[in-house]
């Protein structure tokens, strides 16, 4: 160590005694230290006395630039006199005992670690070593070790590790020396290599000699020993050594003893340390097996359920974590996790997901426990405990595109123009001369001019498989509805009758009991179509047959009176102008499904009337998740209490029907329905399993099913046990949707938020790494909720979000054509036919020309194009409700709508994935693929809607009419509010470490204008949640492909929350269909303002446009400055898999970016009056 030089810092008096003494020590270092040991003893003794009696002396020694620490360490390094060494060690102990980590950091930076370790090595060579010296050295090492990142490596390389271990073995019963040795050993063990080395030297067994049953003595020693043992057991080798010596049972016994005797909870830290040892030892498969064999589940369950005190949450949470980890992994109670239904494809790409799925060997779903030491990392980071916000994701996002060449939009014609000419048929308005239209008639432009669909793909063939051939599609469909007799019922025979008078009077209706089948061969009255009679006020009963309407089946002959069956429905025509039950039945007949559905769900038939106001976000009940987890653990501890009765199963040819009055009845065999299996586990608790997307073995999130035969006033718990995402808004106040048929018939046909004790957590069901696509330990998650039904014999429907079926879309489009405003040019074409044989509608909306003269027709043809798409992911039903709001606005009669139609030509594909919507998929089409990942290279016969939608855009680009705006409507499952994703080279570069010249980052900031306008107009929209980065994993999405390949600067994905809002007018409220439709309308208003900002006339005549763009630039720069501290997720959110939001369980963010609520939404006329650009 270099000889230090004392420096007298300005402000420190030169007459200070301690500085004079340090100066003397400095001069003695070296040869003089050996010859003048008595003098050094006296000097160090005086310094120690001053430090012990004067606080200012300590400050003088550790003041920056004083050099006091260097002199002391140099003296310690050169000293050979024992008393001098002890004095210096005492000086260091005094200095480092106070002052926090700063003084320790100074000591480490001056080389204190190396000096002390060298002293430890040299002192250990004496026989026997001085106990006081060893005590002081280890005390100091225990203090500075945690502050030195390389402490473990230094200790191992110098040999200090073995010195401490040998000293520990020789002083097991010497508590005075044992404690500091254990403290240092705890720091040593933090290094994984050291932990393995210590385990080989028998330190694990030594720790079990130190720890023991409950005792009021030496609790500090017990705590340090347990912490050391916990650090050692992080090593897989040490954990195996402990298991082989049956020490898991020892730990459980010790924990029980401390739990039993620590009645006043004064030693919870010791109990937590014991649990820490158990948590580490059970990271391995052998450890979990030993834990189960030692009855660890029952022990921890019994010791946790009796801890109601909130201050003991750390014990309960750790116990819960251990039990969940050790709960044996099981496969789902299904014959296979592949979808129940199979749809044969025209061809199967060799490397595609369908080929991989059906080439998997039999039994691939089996779960094999192959976990290792790192498995617990995921368990520790998931949302297991209450009152903890999700950890901030501070890691750099490696998904950002860093190649400038790839970031730059590159326009190129990927298909020959002669091939693109086929799309001319969808742009009749660009060639129409309107001579045949009577433009003096305001309704002249209303109607449908369907174009013939594009060529249909080749007829399907069966999917090749490496195993037994799958069943043909017609065999995969389930049988007709259970319990129905007679010939199929013709849809035309359904009669509808409304009773507005009764509804206004609040009188309920009930069906007459259906006629029973005649033994002589007669038939019964059709189910659900019986005449209705008034219901007594106290007898609110409803036959479950009313819940579904047959598309074909369950019919019979007319009754004796010769009258057809009549179904009473509420008269809501005035409130639901786009809904018509009779029309819905008619359009549903032409909807083709893989299971060949024969039923219609009552909510889709009767319609949904939005509630008057949004419902509040549910406040999370403290401890609800832990309670649910413990109830799941009870299944393993008390298996005799579990019924395990299957009450619904699509895998069976005929789903079981149990009429014992003790079980609920389930059904999901209707359009968009999804429920595969229901198992009654307790009297009022059911495990529910969702069906995979067709031709897939995953994507479980969307659900839509029917429940009947319930008891009034009884809480029922429902557990959906095969969810896949790691977190959900169900943990942040979102509730499920329920539709009551009783309430609908009483005049309240609406979906409402419901459910209590809602939470979302990892369960013990899993699948093999092969079935999980190579992801080892792929676990499922449980979404649980409790519902208490209000009506006797009601029929209720549950859904993930507000359902919106393909038949609903067809009905709405037909009603829009009938009701659209005057002067609207509305044309509906069939873009193509889907794999399932369903049409994909394409809408053209604009304003009719004022006349047939050339000027007016050219004005129509020159209008900028706005291209809107939606519902590429079937489970994101909120996208369809936003689209509904957009379409209603575009075809409406408001002045703003008229202006908007005169400004733009709208091309709208409201549903890109009709097949997925119809068949109850969550994310995929019938090809088993996410269509929003196929935009780069869509295959026409596997992804027809994407192929032809892209073809439309390519055609527009080829004729120099690329859209001004492209927007794809989506829903987001993990974030609140409505927001947009866009594309920007500059903002992507700013989030990476790319060194790019400023000239390469030049781009027009117009992509931010539309989101900014929306943040000013729409109360649900959040600008702070928007992101404009381009990620590698999203390069095949619509947003990125349209931006990159077609050069559309304003290419967006608009994400709508499935939960609610945490800012603005709707803060703390769950989103409903009214708010979603409002969002669709507000997008139209924003587009109108965008036109006024970007039109050539405005750009030339209004200087404020340039000012506006400067404001956007300034806002962008300011946002970038603030993003690091206030919005870490603003620019790193993935489009479909975002980081977890930073909100507490009440879903009220403490770091809102918008300090003021947006203005109240205005009417069309008010917006027109207040628009400064009008």
UniProtKB/TrEMBL annotation:
Superkingdom, taxonomy of origin: Eukaryota
The keyword Protease is annotated on this UniProt entry: yes
GO biological process, one term: proteolysis
CC terms in the record's Gene Ontology section: cytosol; mitochondrion; nucleus
Location within or outside the cell: Cytoplasm, Cytosol; Mitochondrion; Nucleus
One Gene Ontology MF term: zinc ion binding
Keywords carried by this UniProt record: Carboxypeptidase, Cytoplasm, Hydrolase, Metal-binding, Metalloprotease, Mitochondrion, Nucleus, Protease, Zinc
Comp. bias (Acidic residues): 366-391, 1136-1149
UniProt region (Disordered), positions on chain: 354-412, 445-488, 508-531, 1136-1174
Pro residues: compositionally biased ranges: 450-480
PROSITE patterns recorded: PEPTIDASE_M14 (PS52035)
Domain Peptidase M14 intervals: 802-1091
InterPro entries, alphabetized: ARM-like (IPR011989), ARM-type_fold (IPR016024), CBPC1/4 (IPR033852), Cytosolic_carboxypeptidase (IPR050821), Pepdidase_M14_N (IPR040626), Peptidase_M14 (IPR000834)
Family: Belongs to the peptidase M14 family.
Protein name: Cytosolic carboxypeptidase 1
Organism: Clupea harengus (Atlantic herring)
Lineage: Eukaryota, Metazoa, Chordata, Craniata, Vertebrata
Gene designation: agtpbp1
